[in-house]
Amino acid sequence: MGYAFEETYQSKERKGFFKIMNIAVKKSFLKGTINVPGDKSISHRAVMLGAIAKGITRVKNFLNSEDTRRTIKAFRQMGVKISVIESECSGRVYSACSGRVDSACSDREIIIEGKGPYLKKPKGKIDAGNSGTTIRLLAGILAGQPFTSCITGDKSLCFRPMRRIILPLRKMGARIKARQDNYAPIYVRGGNLKPLSSPHKLEIASAQLKSCVLLAHLYTGKKIELIEPEKSRDHTERMLKYFGANIKVKGRHIILNPDSSLSGRVISIPGDISSAAFFIIGAIITKNSEVFIKKVGINPTRMEILSVLQKMGANVQLDNKSMEGGEPVADISIISSGLKGISIRGKSIPLIIDEIPILTVAATQARGKTVIRDAIELRIKETDRIKSMVTELKKMGADIRELRDGMVINGPTQLKGADLNSYADHRTAMALVIAGLIAESRHSAKSRPSGRGSANGKTTIHDVECINTSSPEFAKILKKLGADISIAKDDPPTLKLRRAGERRLIIAIDGPAGSGKSTVAKEIAKKSGYVYLDTGAMYRALTLKAMRKKVNLRSPKALVNLAEKTKISFKGEKVFLDNRDVSAEIRAPSVSNNTHFIATVPGVRERMKILQRKMGDRGGIVAEGRDMGTIIFPNAHRKFYLDAKIMVRAKRRYKELKEKEYSATFKKVLQDTIRRDKRDSERDIAPLRKAKDAVLIDTTNMTIKEVVQRCQVLTNDKYQD
């Protein structure tokens, strides 16, 4: 038997943060006094206005999260000097983006040496990571700069709509290019801005859109009146006034006259009420809980979460109200309370859009029906939060139904421990952790879902490193309050000599059609005693089912519904669709030519990603496809990208079809291969590309045996002591 080397499957550590693989939580109650991290929205804005103000700005209780660090790094790229002081650690001053800042420190200050309104042209692209606030607000500042810049983000951010900010900035004279005129990366050529016609009605109630336009208008020198359709968060207006701007707010009307410069200030960031909402609702729904949260921001445009909870019957009180840096703050006390269902819609929604995931958890414990409407904006957040919350809470036994623009929840229901997915969304992840605090065990083996953490009431939420984007201390605070919570952190990888049959490594193989990846993957799996995961076959199987059932292949909704009702499994190299062997049928040209309709639907890919990652949860697999190393298993132990000249790949495909007695001409196969390459590489969702750390192998003049040996040698070389 051959040998392979085992490496614990862990995600790579980001500078300044440990990565959390999963969180396991058991039924608990909460008691204690806490401080929540600084408000993320205000932290972003403090950096931005401090950077374009004149003089020194000192920001206390700054939220040091992945998102806010992206904003700091962006301005450092443009010549602004920013330092971070970790006063509770060693008191030393660190470079803000050095990667050496410890997220366990709780009392942070940053010092910004403001450059005034005009900044230095950045070297290279500005990477906003997963931060919508960074990319949308910064675009307004970049529109006023006399240079061309590019701002982009991670995969999730690059699929969030940006046309809402692009159109008004273009009207002001900025020259902007974006992918499909709606998505990042966004190229901005700024300078010489002209004001929008005043009064200007904003198309949607969005604090990010409003802030982007206000920041851009600082560079016009002209007065502007903006009118919101509904009132949204007003942190930008308050902070502009605090920095010296001539700005007035009357209800939904904002009047900005940029006739004065901004000056550096000392700012104390209040606790983030969006972060506090998780602990507030955690205390409300768990029996015998009592929590006191100090110095939380109670901005009137953020207080709706408390108003909604009080309408539901929650026992929440405010004490010690004061003002800090233009923002109202107070202490919040919470006691366990019984809740009743209510209707949440209309004007309330823009004011609680970030709190809806955790409100959904509260609604499962409310007596009667809770209806949430007018919240379609949730579908274009870091993930589709309507879909993510409905799907995962159903796994826990919640009586919840998805609507186009919201959901209906009937309660109270006793939630059960389950294996859950975060969808790489921080608010979904944290809401599900709180749900786990009230989950009971499943007494009947028949009622247990597959996976870990359900039989004894334990709830496990996977893929939760996303929590670092907004609340890196979330788990630490829950532990302080007494929650029974365990965290799996990254440790340095340990290498041990293992027989391949013990199934630990994850090997990802990507490449275009005809490159040999399927055959190579099968051989490596066979020789190593690993599981062969043919992800392309999963999409083919779903395509076959859609064709049989005459489902509209151009209807994403219909395809997502079909995917959710479909079972796909593997036994050796055989593929089973709803327990029926379809290994041969899915290779038909008619299926191949229609698979792209399925593979480009985000909801279908999300469903497949969950299934595929679950299959690889324990390692010991060889996964092949088109996004294995980039999307599905970004931390695979070894990645390969196979390619070959297009004529060679077309000949291989033609030979395969002839051997299976399908009618085909070489000319038609070559045309199909060219079209497929173009389609796979240019599609918006998970395009075919080589992972940065993948080994490229040109198989044009190699035999299958030679390719397999090459992959095995490279894998063993990497994991040899």
Automatic annotation (TrEMBL):
Location within or outside the cell: Cytoplasm
Keyword Lipid metabolism: no
Pathway the protein acts in: Metabolic intermediate biosynthesis; chorismate biosynthesis; chorismate from D-erythrose 4-phosphate and phosphoenolpyruvate: step 6/7
Pfam families per the UniProt record, alphabetical: Cytidylate_kin, EPSP_synthase
Annotated InterPro entries: Cytidylate_kin (IPR003136), Cytidylate_kinase_dom (IPR011994), Enolpyruvate_Tfrase_dom (IPR001986), Enolpyruvate_Tfrase_sf (IPR036968), EPSP_synthase (IPR006264), EPSP_synthase_CS (IPR023193), P-loop_NTPase (IPR027417), RNA3'P_cycl/enolpyr_Trfase_a/b (IPR013792)
Residue positions of the active site: D354 (proton acceptor)
First-level EC class: transferase
Binding residue positions for 3-phosphoshikimate: K40, S41, R45, S206, Q208, D354, K381
Enzyme Commission number(s): 2.5.1.19, 2.7.4.25
Catalytic reaction(s) noted: dCMP + ATP = dCDP + ADP; CMP + ATP = CDP + ADP; 3-phosphoshikimate + phosphoenolpyruvate = 5-O-(1-carboxyvinyl)-3-phosphoshikimate + phosphate
Limits of the Enolpyruvate transferase domain: 28-477
Binding site residues for phosphoenolpyruvate: K40, G132, R160, Q208, R385, R427
Cytidylate kinase domain ranges (all copies): 507-710
Binding site for ATP: G511, P512, A513, G514, S515, G516, K517, S518, T519
Assembly information from the UniProt record: Monomer.
Protein role: Catalyzes the transfer of the enolpyruvyl moiety of phosphoenolpyruvate (PEP) to the 5-hydroxyl of shikimate-3-phosphate (S3P) to produce enolpyruvyl shikimate-3-phosphate and inorganic phosphate.
Name used for this protein in its record: Multifunctional fusion protein
Organism: Candidatus Desantisbacteria bacterium CG_4_10_14_0_8_um_filter_39_17
